[in-house]
Write a structure and sequence with these properties.
The protein has 365 residues and is an alpha+beta fold. The protein has 8 helices and 16 strands. It is 35% helix and 35% strand.
């Protein structure tokens, strides 16, 4: 709805400026403007109309610099309104709405830049050797199902993964009493000093919501904002730290199989195609069960260590995986659900489809 409203404001406001052009060149009767307009000024009216309509098009197509066109259009429109104040003063209403849109755009860019600056800091500080290759000798100590998984995913013979970028599309909700929110996510994970920097854009009841999940130095925070401006939820603390450690370990297993040789992983128990493992970061130790099929695919990951703030206690959490596909030379699961297992029944609160995955690329895309 916000997108549609924004396109309508920009488009209609732009087209209204054509009246000044028509008045200057005597194209039809333009009774709404009594003051005479010279042809040079008429061209300015036309230019303003074109810029605002161009801003509407770029806004609809999600080009980030739509706001630059809109800002120029706003300034020109204000100048034109002041030159014909008695006839055009009501044009201040759409300009006020446009100014509000620009403030939201500025807040969105500023909030996103917080995420990007954090990512850039980690990228610049990472000096890992990305030329090391994962070999069969690296995996001989791993449980057989995990070895099979690494072979299935075509991880052998590929570089060690030190960091990666991933993007997902999908939907999310708080629990089964809430409506689904469509979302797009972008994240960067770093292995040497475990960090997970996660940015989310979602739509809540037609309104844009953005969020940053930051997990670094063993500490986690979640900051959710309406219009990237009004904070509607902020969470941190020990329970968040543990929950994000589970999520980080899940990302390693699902998105970066070569990282399963990490010495911070302890393989606790093997029972057929089910493997129990722990992962340690700082003083936090989390445990999870990995479920494989006979083909070598990881088909589920579950942990009892994630705190559910809705239930106010830890609940079993799982991420069943599906749709294995070739992805940049690897065979990976490209779809997953996020499920909390309540005593009254299971609730799928998130569904994700992998759109992009890049390993060891030392730049922000």
């Amino acid at each position: 709805m916000y997108k549609i409203l924004g396109v309508l404001i920009l488009s209609i406001h732009g087209l209204i400026h054509l009246m000044g052009f028509m008045k200057a060149f005597h194209w039809g009767q333009v009774s709404q403007i009594a003051k005479e307009i010279s042809k040079p000024w008429g061209l300015v009216w036309l230019l303003t109309a074109m810029i605002l309509v161009g801003a509407a098009i770029t806004f609809a197509l999600n080009y980030r610099l739509w706001w630059a066109l809109a800002g120029i259009g706003l300034v020109l429109s204000l100048i034109l309104i002041f030159t014909t104040w008695q006839d055009a003063k009501f044009g201040m209403i759409p300009n006020a709405l446009l100014f509000g849109m620009l403030m939201i755009a500025y807040a969105s860019c500023s909030f996103y830049n917080i995420f990007l600056k954090d990512v850039d800091l980690f990228l610049q500080s990472d000096v890992a050797n990305t030329s090391e290759i994962l070999t069969e000798s690296d995996i001989v100590e791993l449980p057989e199902p995990v070895q099979k998984y690494l072979r299935y995913t075509a991880s052998i013979g590929k570089p060690h993964v030190h960091y990666f970028e991933a993007e997902f599309s999908g939907k999310i909700r708080k629990n089964d009493q809430y409506e689904w929110m469509p979302l797009h996510t972008q994240q960067y994970n770093f292995m040497a000093n475990p960090a997970r920097l996660f940015f989310m854009n979602a739509v809540m009841k037609t309104l844009p919501v953005a969020g940053i999940h930051s997990y670094k130095n063993g500490k986690a925070t979640m900051d959710i904002r309406l219009f990237s401006l009004l904070q509607v939820q902020f969470m941190d603390g020990r329970d968040m730290d543990v929950a994000e450690t589970v999520t980080f370990f899940n990302d390693m297993c699902v998105l970066a199989p070569p990282t399963l040789i990490d010495q911070r992983i302890k393989w606790v128990e093997v029972n057929g195609n089910q493997v129990k493992a722990s992962f340690t970061n700082k003083e936090i130790v989390v445990t999870a069960c990995l479920y494989f099929n006979d083909e070598g695919q990881l088909i589920n990951f579950s942990s009892d260590d994630r705190y559910n703030f809705d239930a106010a206690k830890k609940l079993k959490w799982s991420t069943p995986l599906r749709n294995y596909k070739e992805f940049n030379g690897y065979r990976l699961a490209t779809s997953a659900d996020a499920i909390y297992h309540y005593p009254k029944g299971d609730v799928i609160y998130g569904s994700f489809d992998l759109q992009k995955l890049m390993y060891n690329v030392k730049k922000i895309d």
